[in-house]
Amino acid sequence: MLRATTTTAVRAFKPVQVSAIARPYSTGKFNEKERAEEEIYFRKKEQEEIAKLREALAKAEKQIEDLKKN
Fold first, then answer.
1. pLDDT value at residue 28
2. CA gap 11, 8 in Å, rounded
3. Euclidean distance between CA atoms 29 and 35, whole angstroms
4. Could you give the number of structural domains in the chain?
5. For position 21, what pLDDT does the model report?
6. Tell me: the pLDDT tens digits for 11-36?
7. How far apart are CA 55 and CA 64, in angstroms?
């Protein structure tokens, strides 16, 4: 009888574990907001990187122009 109870308990928890693995993101509003905030954060970081690269490009172009003049 103890065996049957233990087996039943294991079966009860197994579907919960499988469903958690199959669906890493839930569809709740909190997770939607979290994903949106992450997207905003990474877009901001990308924009900062692009600005730095544009500054470096402008500096390099200025150096090339200075070398062409001499």
1. 79
2. 5
3. 10
4. 1
5. 54
6. 554 554 445 555 555 667 888 899 99
7. 14
pLDDT in the model for residue 1: 46
**Which range marks the domain in which residue 9 is found?**
2-69
- Condensed to tens digits (0 to 9), the pLDDT of residues 32-62 reads 899 999 999 999 999 999 999 999 999 999 9
Contact 25, 35 (CB under 8 A): yes
Q: How far is CA 8 from the centre of its chain?
A: 38
Asked if residues 70 and 64 have their Cβ atoms less than 8 Å apart, the reply is no
Question: CA 49 → CA 42, 43, 46, 59, 65, distances in Å?
Answer: 10, 10, 5, 15, 24
Helix%, strand%, coil% for the chain, nearest 5? 90, 0, 10
Residue with tokens 């693995």: 21
Pair of tokens at residue 32:
């939607």
